[in-house]
Amino acid sequence: MPGFGDRSFFQRMFVHNFWLKLVSLLLAIGLWMAVAHDPPAEVEMKVPIEFHNLPDTLEIDSASFTEAQIRVRGPERVIHRLELADVRAEIDLANVGPGERTFDLTARHVHVPQDLEVVQIIPGQFHLSFDHRATREVEVRPRVIGNFASGMRVSQVIADPAHVMLTGPQRRIDAVDAATTDPVDVSGAMTRASFVTQAYVPDPLIQVVHPTPIRVTVIMEGSGNEKK
Questions:
Q1: Which residues contact 179 (CB under 8 A, 6 or more apart)?
Q2: Which of 105, 131, 157 is the last residue of a domain?
Q3: Number of domains into which the chain is organized
Q4: pLDDT tens across 62-74, in order?
Q5: Residue 14 — pLDDT band, cuts 50, 70, 90?
Q6: 18, 39, 103, 134: which could form a disulfide with 170 (CB 3.0–4.6 Å)?
Q7: Contacts for 130 with CB less than 8 Å, ≥ 6 apart
């Protein structure tokens, strides 16, 4: 067994692969200096809250669009490269049912890149209501506007298709009588005019199923032709 006086032992320990060991030492020193000179920084971001696994039979019955203000902390170099898409707030809705529910929003619901930590979330709680999903067919009632020529009036308005299918929370669907269209301006029309437009419902939580263009035909007639 080599002793401390054995020169070959020291040569093997310190001279063998000397340059490789020197490079490793310099890299370690450089990494330490980079970390030491990379002070922590914070940034605040506003991100939408993502909802996952909502049961197929339910709809979110809350008109407000939920988002969170999230403050994260980490090395300055990482904070400078941070983009909005790198921070996500997610809530699992797999076990919800009809009615109202309050959700906690904590750091475990927020995904951030490695080396960053979540230090604040606003709001810490939020409230949602849920309703059964409903589908119903309703009439399309075109909205006709314009300055008619003297002695002329609208005799008939035809929508094609005449009905559209709506889907949304049950109580909101039940409250809808008909869908309307973007305004069609018949100013100056003397006999018949056709327009291509879209049908919609003002409630933002109700959607038109498979929306298609609506052809609106407006038929004009003179007031003298008005039936008694």
A1: 138, 139, 140, 141, 164, 166, 199, 200, 201, 208
A2: 131
A3: 2
A4: 877 689 999 999 9
A5: low
A6: 134
A7: 58, 59, 60, 61, 96, 97, 98, 99, 100, 101
